[in-house]
Automatic annotation (TrEMBL):
UniProt keyword annotation of NAD present: no
Protein name listed in UniProt: 5-formyltetrahydrofolate cyclo-ligase
Highest classification ranks of the organism: Bacteria, Pseudomonadati, Pseudomonadota, Betaproteobacteria, Burkholderiales
Organism: Aquabacterium lacunae
Family: Belongs to the 5-formyltetrahydrofolate cyclo-ligase family.
Domain of life: Bacteria
GO molecular function: 5-formyltetrahydrofolate cyclo-ligase activity; ATP binding; metal ion binding
Pfam families: 5-FTHF_cyc-lig
Enzyme's top EC category: ligase
Keywords: ATP-binding, Ligase, Magnesium, Metal-binding, Nucleotide-binding
Cofactor(s), by name: Mg(2+)
E.C. number: 6.3.3.2
Length: 191
């Protein structure tokens, strides 16, 4: 029987993928673009760690393209390593040129084949999130491990409004790393 996190994750993913195909999703993408662009313009990152969108996630690439034209900004994408039998799971960022990725990481997600990078601001996709700043991801722990190993980075969650879950429905565990902020189509949620 799946645990409560697994069941919640499956429920949120199914709802997100159905919702992502609607007209409302197009309008929400535009609003989230505006909020994220405004926030990142204030943060003025030197290095921005993005993600390649999958399964109905918000696409941060247009925002990064806009910022790259106004800031001296290095963009990077995550590259996940599964490790032997799950031990040694880790993630690093690699410089990204803004073109369609030419590589795939060990989790089967499109990634950059560029040099290793050290972004100072990360955009972290959220399957679900709480107002207290915790996120529910896909369950591999890659982003949590990266944030724990790099506590100096500014971690900004990116989520659809529909991904908000009550704090009582998703209790953080010891390995969960809080996000500094979460950006949604409705605005910025201070964690």
């Amino acid at each position: 029987m799946p645990d409560s996190r697994t069941a919640l994750r499956q429920q949120l993913l199914q709802a997100r993928q159905a919702w992502a195909a609607t007209e409302a999703a197009v309008a929400a993408q535009a609003r989230l673009n505006e909020h994220l662009l405004a926030l990142l313009s204030q943060l003025e990152p030197e290095g921005l760690g993005l993600y390649w969108p999958i399964r109905g996630e918000f696409n941060p690439c247009p925002v990064a393209e806009t910022l790259a034209g106004t800031l001296n900004l290095q963009r990077s994408l995550p590259h996940a390593f599964k490790g032997e039998g799950g031990a040694g799971r880790r993630m690093e960022y690699r410089v990204w040129d803004g073109q369609a990725p030419r590589a795939v990481d060990e989790c089967g997600i499109a990634c950059s084949d560029g040099a290793k990078a050290s972004p100072d601001v990360l955009l972290v996709p959220c399957v679900g999130f709480t107002r207290s700043g915790f996120r529910l991801g896909y369950g591999g722990g890659y982003f949590d491990r990266y944030m724990a190993a790099h506590p100096h980075v500014t971690a900004v969650g990116v989520a659809w409004d529909e991904a908000l879950v009550d704090d009582t429905a998703f209790a953080p565990q010891a390995h969960d790393q809080p996000l500094m902020l979460i950006v949604t189509p409705s605005g910025v949620v201070d964690a």
